[in-house]
Amino acid sequence: MDVKHLVNKYISIESLTAVMAWAVVSISAVWLMYDSNDYSWTSIAAAVTFFVIFKLSFLASIVEHDALENIQVSISLLVVQYIAIMAAAAVVPFTYIAILVTIWSAQLPYFVSFRTAVISSPLWSAPLWIVFSVAWGREFNGLSALLFWTFNMFALVMVNATIREKRAREAANEINRELLATQALLGEAAKQAERVRISRNIHDLLGHHLTALTIKLQVAARITDGEAQKNIQQCHDLSKLLLSDVREAVSEIREKSAIEWQFALRQLIENVPNLTIDLDIKRSIQISDMHTADAILKCVQECLTNTLKHSDAKHFSISIDQIDNNLLVEMSDDGHHKKSKTLTEGNGLKGMRERIKELGGNFIANLSPNGFKTVIELPEVL
């Protein structure tokens, strides 16, 4: 894991703000308890312990998922944080430690739906104030509870808006990359179609007329003699040579009608967020079939999407080679699947398999502890 990723992930402004709020709340509460001389060392030690437990479990919960086995671990850490807050309220008499509940609530939209978090908010907001009422007999406890509940709602709304904006931005970037790749491929398709059209026109019009002219000159040479026959024969030879040159030119145009698919591929993998992509094209590979080029782009796009959505990968590699006129595409990442350790084919993988099968190729997908790997083999590239 690189330093840049560590800084962006663990020293974000959001996590720093939460840690600062925790520090102000916990340090001030412990100091006030110590300074008042009304609380035993046992109570102070218990308060410190519960505050530290909250902090450690909070830091663990914001660690990226490669340090966690599954979503249940994250939820367990949330439960630990909540219990630590309730336990701290039982030994700390200051109601402002309810700020920790606001920090806790800001994590909920990452693990449950916004609607669930809002509907359940009275259930997880009320216990703290019940503890304060029972343990410390606070007056106007209901008003404080209402005020802090509104703080929790504000935190939920803001975090949910941030998450939605981030997802919308990622979706827009993905669509933009796909559109750029598609645009590049369509441009190549138009160029290919134009080259084919020109070659056909040359063959059908100029080629046919030259053939007719050659035949006419051959006939004329047979019905003449002397100097005229000699000149006609020379014209006949020139027409045959010109016809041969036309056929060679048509063949060359068709041979050079390969699609510049590599440019479209680079457009697709450029500026993918939070993912380093290595592209290794072993040799100069010519693809003249639009369906083959489109299939490659669609499969790369789907694999990238799966990596970003379902794993915590930081590196994605694409290797393309040609073996015995077969195109071999290998794609792999270094991530761990967020939800499952076994491969379950969804619509994306099934679509790739069907697309490759229609072209007569082979498709293999494999999920392992080292990451996800896809191998595609397409026949007759040239």
Question: How would you characterize the overall build of this protein?
Answer:
- α8 runs antiparallel to α9 (226-255) and α8 (141-222) runs antiparallel to α11 (290-310).
- This protein has a 5-stranded mixed beta sheet with strand order 1-2-3-5-4, covered by helices on one side.
- It folds into 3 domains: 3-138, no CATH class; 196-255; 259-378, Histidine kinase-like ATPase, C-terminal domain (Heat Shock Protein 90), CATH 3.30.565.
- The longest helix has 82 residues, at 141-222.
- α11 links the parallel β1 (276-281) and β2.
- It has 382 residues and is α+β, with helices and mostly antiparallel strands.
- It is built from 12 helices and 5 strands.
The gist of it:
The protein is an alpha+beta fold and 382 residues long. It has twelve helices and five strands. A hairpin with a 2-residue loop joins strand 2 (315-323) and strand 3 (326-333).
| Secondary-structure element order, N to C | HHHHHHHHHHEHEEHEE
Number of strands: 5
> Sheet bearing the most strands, described?
5 strands, mixed
The percentage of residues in β strands lies in 5-15%
General shape: rod-shaped
How many helices does DSSP assign?
12
| Amino- and carboxy-terminal Cα gap | 40 Å
The stretches of 5 or more residues where confidence is low (pLDDT under 50) are 1-10, 64-69
Structural class of the helix and strand makeup? alpha+beta
Number of domains: 3
Spatial order of the strands forming the largest sheet: 1-2-3-5-4
The share of residues in helices is 55-70%
Question: How confident overall, as mean pLDDT?
Answer: 79
